[in-house]
# Entry
Amino acid sequence: MRKTPVVAVIGVGAVGIEMLRVLKQRNFPAKEIRALARSARDIEVDGQKYPVKAISPEAFDGVDIALFAGTEGEKGAAVTYAKEAVKRGAVVIDNGADFRMEKDVPLVVPEVNGKDVKKHKGIIANPNCSTIQMVVALAPIHKKAGIRRIIVTTLQASSGAGKSAVEQLNEEVTAICAGRFCSVHAKVENRSMPQQLAYNVFPQIGGFAEDDYTSEEWKLVKETHKIMHDDRIKVSATTVRVPVRTGHSESVYIETAKPISPGAVKKLLAKSPGIILVDDTKSGLYPMPKDVEGRDETFVGRIRRDPFVKNGMWLWVVADNLRKGAATNAVQIAEELIK
# Structure
């Protein structure tokens, strides 16, 4: 891997745009940055113009690192072009779910298991957004006291479902606030999510799968096991879509093998990489999605013991799902490659 690699960003939707932004903001030492998508056009990100080229196998010639923004499935860019990119000499970092659970594909959060990038055979997977922020917060605790059990409820922003979901939320809020509906029920033309989101929450992200858990809930289970190299941790999740534009929040309950006090956890997390502790309940200070938008760190607060369960503890974890939950984590993986 060259110290100044040629980087390709595949897809220029919300995550792809954020990847271009993060590469620039973190001063990534790229010799060249190529933007690829289904059709050629010009785009502008923070005042900088990027010519977007139509994706093809030949577009990966000379590319060292290919950042796939996350179009999933058999017709998605990663399934169609990732192996072609590898064949032409690139290391693929894929933000989608297509390769995450494959045995030979590392699933990496640099603050947690950055060394796993060395195990790649051409493809490295970026974990699910809700998984990333949770393991960043929990990995230091697991290393110190051992985590036996995790119960997590996620409160996930509309941007996690893409640009069309954000547009649906905006249209619903506008329609209700304009008085077009005498109740909180908004019927709008743009409907990308399974339920109304404005003035509402609903406990479904992804399709329902095994044991009536959603696919998003199973991602939290399986990806946590793989990233933390420990499938003995008992993980149970409920994922909820909430009327927030950007920023996922998580209410996380853990049980540790060894006793550890909330004060010790606060000191531990305050000095851990990628974490900002915001925990001053007397002053009403705790992480909120409106405050973390545009930030790369994982914010943690409301750390408190369970008064009824030995070694039980609660944490409140918030992060920007488009940045640390997607684009920033992918770029951090690329930084690990060139170290």
